Fold this sequence. Notes:
By secondary structure, this protein is α+β, with helices and mostly antiparallel strands. 27% of the residues lie in helices and 17% in strands.
Amino acid sequence: MGGFTFAQSLILIVAASILAACTANKESPRPKYTHSPNKIIVGGSEGWHFNFSYTDWALKNGPFYLNDTLVFKYDPPTENTTIPHSVYLLPNLRSFLTCNLTGAQMLADVTQGGGQGFEFVLKNWKPHYFACGQHDGIHCSLGKMKFFVMPMPRWFR
């Protein structure tokens, strides 16, 4: 029986880093710790739109817990005024860093963010890499429309 694999070690380091960053920033408007799942609007009052740092938002609003629900809210596209957005779940860290949509799963198309928004439940204890997939990932790479979360078990505080 060996120790952790490289991937498992990397996940633990990332999770510990996120937890440390989140607990160090006492002034951030994080969801309150509860014993039941939270519903969190991605981007807060900004919603899901171009040219906003969702990585910063995730660091300031974490930690996130298993069974929390992320709500992606964005306006459906119009002919001349609204830029279309979507939500993709990227398969791994490399895809996240390079905004490569190969192997990514579309979670919500351009029409699903309106109204109450699109909801995604954090069901697995693993990193979840999210990005806007519009224009072959341009929004991801140029407009900062990407972030990741590593949901923690509820007892991890």
